[in-house]
Amino acid sequence: MVRVTSRPDETVAGERPATGASPAPDAAGLGRARATGFLVPSMVLIVLFLVVPAAWTIYLGVTNYRLTGLAAAHPEFVGLHNYTTVLGDERFLSSLLLTLQFVLGSAVIGQAGLGFAIAFALRNRRNAVRRVVEAFVLLAWILPSSVVAFLWIALLDRDGGTLNALLGTPGTAWLLDHPMLSIIVFNTWRGAAFSMMLYAAALENVPQSHLETARLAGASTWQQLRDVVFPVIRGHVLTNLLLISLWTFNDFTPFLITAGGPEQRTEILPVYVYKVALSGGELGFGAAISFIMLLINLVIALIYLRMLGRRKERP
């Protein structure tokens, strides 16, 4: 009589393989209690510094809360009044338009473009040259914002500014005549380091043999970028654009240079919120603006994530 047995690596349907030990409750083998213990500190920090401020902002946005006066001691519920007022406020709409210009100029075009140009130019350079250039670019990123703002005010000064001395244009008031261009160039110079580092890592994934083949076939630099480089690093480009767009949209640093002036020509939304909520004392109105900014950030993020999703769906 022949006895049929299954191999050790086969299992009978509906039965758990006999391994001699019960499977671990999680991949690390910590157990649910210890795993939860590791998560608790981070969850507490997230609640304290993200969830609670967000909930407090939403609450303030539906009240007439102020820094001083009776509304500070006894705020009243006003419903959606702050939001309807904001959406009908020409100053808010002007600030939103200026913010979109600032994001497009300094993040999408400026930081992304300059960061990629530096990374692509240094990809085949010797380590010494590459390290020196990267160090100078990173220096602009790690310096405190107040120090960077002081340096740029000195650079763009009308009377003794360095830029006027270099260009031979004494008396040109860059911060008065070209305020938006000034803060766009300033933020581009200040933030290009992040894009440079991300693109430098992404370019390591581009096969050099493909570039060499395209070069031997007579492809120009633009054709190499379009047909070889960008298809490989497209995901990195979209990720970079998502991050720097959100950071730039909420950037308050231009206030240190122009304070929103002259004549509100550089009053981007973070500066507008500061003036309304802190300088003007209208915390409820400022909270409503902040929540609208949050929704705009969400829309921007969803657009980029949708573009990333379409890339992954392609074969």
Separation, N- and C-terminal Cα atoms? 54 Å
Poorly predicted runs: 8-14, 20-24
Q: In the CATH hierarchy, what is the superfamily?
A: MetI-like
Query: Count of DSSP helices?
Result: 14
CATH architecture: Orthogonal Bundle
Overall form: globular
Task: Give the count of structural domains.
Answer: 1
* Radius of gyration, in angstroms, nearest whole number: 27 Å
Which structural class best describes the helix and strand composition? mainly alpha
**CATH topology descriptor:** MetI-like fold
- Helicity, in percent? 55-70%
| Secondary structure tally: strands | 0
The level-1 CATH class? Mainly Alpha
Largest sheet, in brief, is:
none
Instruction: Give the overall average pLDDT.
Output: 85
- Along the chain, the helix and strand elements come as HHHHHHHHHHHHHH
**Into which percentage range does the β-strand content fall?**
under 5%
Quick tags:
mainly alpha; MetI-like fold; 315 residues; 14 helices
Quick structural overview:
The chain has 315 residues and is an all-alpha fold. Helix content is 70%, strand content 0%.
Task: Describe the 3D structure.
With 315 residues, the chain is mainly alpha-helical. The chain has a single domain, classed as MetI-like fold (Orthogonal Bundle), CATH 1.10.3720.10. It contains 14 helices and no strands. The longest helix has 33 residues. About 4% of the residues have low confidence.
